[in-house]
Amino acid sequence: MVNAGKTSGIILKCLGGLYTVESPDGIFECKARGIFRKKGISPSVGDNVIVENGVISEIGERKNFLIRPPLANLEQIIFIVSTVSPVPNFLILDKFIAIAEYKNIEPVIIITKIDLGDSKPIKDVYSSIGIKVFEADYNSASSIQAVRELLKGKISAFTGNSGAGKSTLLNAVDPDLNIPTGEISKKLGRGRHTTRHAELYRLKDGGYIADTPGFSTFETNRYDIIRKEELAGCFREFVDYTENCLFRDCSHTCEKGCAVVEAVANGIIPKIRHESYCAMYDEAKQLKEWELK
């Protein structure tokens, strides 16, 4: 543990007021200055910090920040989607992808359990809109190596429905992690919550990965709230059409002559993505002003 001097580092874990920091001097636990609490700031996993005499004295500017679980400075979010047990929920997936886009975090999809179900519907939809899609085949070394290359040198988070196989995939990518995995509960149709808090794990090939609680643990508005006016900008395949839309205040849900609606009708924008957008737009319309603050 560092007791004196000044060093910089990255927070790997926050638990009970103690922060685990990795620095050039090693990994150590420390506390944070009380001034942060007075300012309503909390150091979070992924923060770049300055530690002086064993105490966090400065928090670097954040590229982005997720509220729950608290994670800072992510470069990509890896969405683990299984073909079965649990079956894909496209609306929930699209909600989380929208939040990633809103936060300028690159969304990536990895499909698991490809031996038990058809991965093509998932792959076709998301590949067509420019999102990277991988398949996790544990019988193929090249499949797992492709995931290693994806993670190398970046700060990433794994998330997805509980039981989709996040921890299993992480352990295949880097066996040294040895992250506990849970069994699928047939009664509930989802996995037990083996991940209790966000924590960054250093990968042996370089980079960090956060294993986070599954989708079923959180409502998406706990991650962040997107106003209805900003929502279309979180659907990357809409951009070319919203810019050319005839209507200035168009909701892009059902208006006759809307460029987005026409692109959906012509099969250019996947119908299932537009259905997710419309459901999210309806939810955003119901938000009260105090919820947006």
Q: Could you describe the 3D structure shown?
A:
The protein is an alpha/beta fold and 293 residues long. The chain has three domains: 6-60, OB fold (Dihydrolipoamide Acetyltransferase, E2P); 71-221, P-loop containing nucleotide triphosphate hydrolases (Rossmann fold), CATH 3.40.50.300; 225-292, Probable gtpase engc, domain 3 (Ribonucleotide Reductase Protein R1, domain 1, Orthogonal Bundle). Helices cover 26% and strands 25% of the residues. The protein has nine helices and 15 strands. It has helices at 34-38, 90-102, 120-127, 141-151, 166-173, 228-231, 239-242, 259-265, 271-285, and strands at residues 6-15, 18-23, 26-32, 48-52, 55-59, 65-66, 71-72, 76-82, 106-112, 132-135, 155-160, 184-185, 190-191, 200-202, 208-211. Strands 10-9-8-11-15-14 form a six-stranded mixed beta sheet, with helices on both faces. A hairpin with a 2-residue loop joins strand 2 and strand 3 (26-32). Helix 2 packs across helix 9 (271-285). The longest helix has 15 residues, at 271-285. The two termini are 40 Å apart. Mean pLDDT is 87; it is low at 183-195.
